[in-house]
Design a protein that fits this description.
With about 130 residues, this protein is mainly alpha-helical. The chain has a single domain, classed as Arc Repressor Mutant, subunit A (Orthogonal Bundle). It is about 55% helix and about 10% strand. It is built from seven helices and two strands. A two-stranded antiparallel sheet has the order 1-2. The longest helix is centred in the first third of the chain and has 13 residues. It is globular and about 50 Å long. About 15% of the residues are buried.
Length: about 130
């Protein structure tokens, strides 16, 4: 009996014919696990388009307890999704280049399809300079 197509390609990187690097798979799983929390998705969306914000600004915007904002920012920074820069005594947070427009496109299509194109144009304007 011949193996099914699914069985024959299980574990192979799409279109490459070779197994993905286990470290890359592990890193991707950690990123998706981090993005599985609604508050983190809201923080990512708030920083789209090249926007930067301090933790204090995010506290005012969302009205969440300081400990909640700090915990979610920490998780996003640990996964390499947020970048922090010290500026005039404040730490400014921005999206890191590892959050690609394609990934956010899928996310936006699920979360708010009615504003997907507007969101993507805002996001890509802020990231093109960083490429």
């Amino acid at each position: 009996m011949l193996p099914s197509r699914h069985h024959a390609t299980r574990g192979r990187a799409a279109g490459t014919g070779k197994d993905p690097d286990p470290a890359d798979v592990y890193r991707a799983a950690r990123i998706f696990a981090c993005l599985a929390h609604p508050a983190r998705i809201r923080l990512i969306c708030a920083l789209a388009g090249g926007r930067s914000a301090t933790q204090k600004e995010l506290l005012a915007e969302f009205g969440w307890p300081q400990s909640t904002v700090a915990r979610h920012i920490g998780a996003l920074r640990d996964r390499g999704l947020l970048h922090a820069v010290r500026e005039d005594g404040h730490t400014r947070l921005t999206l890191d280049g590892t959050v690609t427009p394609q990934l956010l496109s899928v996310l936006c299509q699920w979360v708010h399809p009615e504003t997907r194109e507007q969101f993507l144009s805002k996001f890509t304007r802020g990231t093109e300079a960083g490429r």
